[in-house]
Design a protein that fits this description.
4-stranded mixed β-sheet, 7-stranded mixed β-sheet, alpha/beta
């Protein structure tokens, strides 16, 4: 987690989800980043997507494959996978193999087969990579990164949650809705969040609760 607390942390999107992407860019802008943390979207049928950056616009390049990322393969530390459950195993295995500095993967799709989650868990353990999900809204590192839909997908929700500055309280839940409620409870009490993690609502989350608690302890 500490390795992600830098202003040069880069992430890519596996698939396109405009609501989630815009919310990540809104958070980047609110915490004062000079440029978006999302460097590319892996999808087909177009070369770019336009999003708001404050009151201006920003263009995020779209590439057809991980290999097409070029030098960005070495820079990427985070992947948000918003592809369907049928593609979760193959697409996630690909980034685990091809991105040498990958630290975190968030899997948004619901109802990923358990056997696929078990296979990904084995690879994640071997490579020491945190995989949140399946059915995860993501990971939040206040002041540094909003990875996924966590904290809300609307600008007003992000502001109301008071999650732009770090604190000392870790928030963990399998439920995306509950993790957001707990974040509001913590910040509403005048405390700050060190990190918030939605493990995922599927029956078999790849990162189990024990591992998440140990990560909070080490943090």
């Amino acid at each position: 987690l500490q390795e992600l607390r830098t202003q040069d942390m880069k992430m890519i999107m596996l698939g396109s989800h405009p609501g989630i992407i815009q919310s990540i860019l809104d958070y980047d802008f609110l915490i004062g980043r000079g440029e978006p943390s999302i460097t590319a979207i892996i999808a087909k049928g177009r070369k770019m997507e336009r999003y708001f950056w404050g009151e201006s616009e920003v263009v995020i390049p779209v590439v057809p494959s991980v290999q097409a990322l070029g030098q960005q393969q070495d820079l990427c530390k985070v992947v948000v996978n918003v592809q369907s459950a049928r593609r979760v195993l193959s697409s996630t295995k690909e980034v685990l193999e091809l991105l040498p500095n990958l630290k975190v993967v968030v899997i948004f799709a619901e109802q990923t087969p358990e056997v696929h989650s078990l296979e990904l868990r084995k690879i994640a353990d071997e490579k020491n990579i945190l995989i949140a999900g399946p059915s995860s809204v993501g990971l939040l590192l206040p002041g540094f990164a909003k990875i996924g839909a966590i904290g809300g997908t609307q600008h007003k929700q992000i502001v109301a949650a008071k999650i732009t500055k770090p604190g000392d309280t870790a928030v963990l839940s399998t439920s995306g809705g509950m993790v957001n409620e707990l974040v509001h409870t913590v910040t509403g009490a005048g405390l700050g969040v060190s990190f918030a993690l939605a493990l995922g609502g599927d029956r078999f989350p790849i990162t189990d609760p024990i591992a998440a608690v140990l990560a909070a302890q080490e943090d």
